[in-house]
Write a structure and sequence with these properties.
- The complex is a heterotrimer, with two copies of chain A (49 residues) and one copy of chain B (294 residues).
- Chain A has one helix at residues 2-48.
- Chain A is mainly alpha-helical.
- Chain A has one domain (1-49).
- Chain A is rod-shaped, with a radius of gyration of 21 Å.
- The model of chain A has no long low-confidence stretch (mean pLDDT 89).
- Chain B has 294 residues and is mainly alpha-helical.
- Chain B has helices at residues 5-33, 39-48, 53-63, 74-94, 104-115, 130-145, 149-167, 174-185, 187-195, 204-209, 218-229, 234-246, 248-252, 257-265, 272-287.
- At the B-C interface, α4 of B face α1 of C.
């Protein structure tokens, strides 16, 4: 029974970890996107003003 | 000289501490070997005795919940804390809230705001308000105490959160409590502070919201924070009381409230260890010593 | 002893989830920032071209 509890705990921890990893990948995509957009805005800005 | 009762009392006190210090350190070491750590016993120890500086940070981390009670989880959880710190910092850099020249304390403030979901838009950031200033003061003090930025951020965050959760409701009552104990210890000074209008203007936020960060030097401050972290906000009242008592003569000579406030916001930094020691004695005298077996 | 194992697992899960929660807040902020930047780029674009 103890082994059972330990297994379950381990599985839950793994789930939590993969949720975290997934969210982290999203963040990294968004960060790349944002950096590109910033540089685009800044290159265009002089022309716009 | 030998007849000076105060002096005799003091030297016997120090002898006692010197002897007991070794015993106390041993009993703390035994507590720290427990797995899981017994938070209640650790709190009681820290309320009753001074924390040896070599164990202070570890005890703070555990009592503040930065590390869990099970020692065999510490490495893993330490890793989580580190990841979380870097994730937040990186995002703030990308969004241009902070850069390499931003002072650490401001970085910690933005990180804390992000986690508490109160980060203002980058374009709408204005001068720090009172609450932000409290946070920054506590951060500056913590930064003096701890070198590692990850530990420092986590301890600030856990300290501030725990302080608000545990003592948020008590803080507004502390000035009244101070008045009460001052009336017991030195009614003449209380009367003077009342008559000059200084009582209402004492630096309560420096004392009771910043927990003396920016008022006491770190060596004295951490002994006060030991008591706050292990569960007492009442200690803050007794430190304030002891500051008033220590500078009684000086304060009785100041008639303008602004003068009183100016002095109390910039107290001399030489004497503060003795002030904290006496404050802890007074606190034990009025509030008792926690009696659980350690 | 079983309770102890459960407590430990629960604490570990909470501490792991705290990373995930932080990531979620970051994602939300990045999304807001991106949306605003896109709408800015789109308003400015006609003038720039």
């Amino acid at each position: 029974f103890l082994e059972d509890v330990k297994c379950q705990a381990k599985a839950e921890l793994q789930d939590s970890d993969s949720r975290y990893q997934a969210q982290r990948r999203i963040t990294q995509l968004l960060q790349t996107e944002l950096l590109q957009l910033y540089s685009r805005v800044e290159t265009e800005a002089p022309a716009g003003t | 000289m030998a007849d000076d009762p105060q002096r005799n009392f003091r030297s016997s006190y120090y002898e006692k501490v010197g002897f007991r210090g070794v015993e106390e350190k041993k009993s703390l070491e035994i507590l720290l070997k427990d797995n899981p750590l017994d938070l209640e016993k650790l709190s009681t120890f820290s309320q009753r005795f001074p924390l040896p500086s070599m164990y202070r940070m570890h005890v703070w981390k555990v009592l503040l919940g930065m590390l869990p009670p099970h020692s065999d989880s510490h490495t893993m959880v330490g890793g989580y804390r580190k990841e979380q710190y870097h994730d937040i910092l990186e995002a703030l850099e990308v969004m241009r809230y902070v850069n390499s020249s931003t002072p650490c304390t401001h970085v910690y403030l933005r990180m804390f705001q992000l986690e508490s979901q109160v980060l203002p838009r980058c374009s709408e950031i204005s001068a720090p308000d009172e609450e932000n200033e409290d946070f920054l003061s506590i951060s500056r003090a913590m930064e003096e105490i701890i070198d590692d930025p990850i530990d420092c951020y986590w301890l600030i965050k856990c300290f501030v959160n725990q302080f608000h959760t545990k003592f948020g409701d008590s803080i507004p009552h502390l000035p009244k409590s101070l008045e009460h104990y001052l009336s017991q210890e030195e009614p003449r000074l209380l009367k003077h502070l009342k008559n000059t209008g200084a009582l209402a203007q004492l630096p309560y936020s420096l004392w009771f919201r910043r927990c003396f960060a920016g008022c006491l030097p770190e060596s004295s401050l951490q002994r006060v924070w030991d008591k706050v972290i292990s569960g007492s906000c009442k200690i803050l009242v007794f430190v304030a009381l002891e500051i008033l008592l220590s500078y009684k003569i000086m304060l009785l000579g100041i008639t303008r409230p602004e003068g009183v406030v100016r002095f109390l916001c910039n107290i001399p930094q030489e004497n503060t260890d003795a002030i904290v020691t006496k404050a802890i004695e007074l606190w034990h005298k009025y509030c008792g010593t926690p009696m659980h077996a350690v």
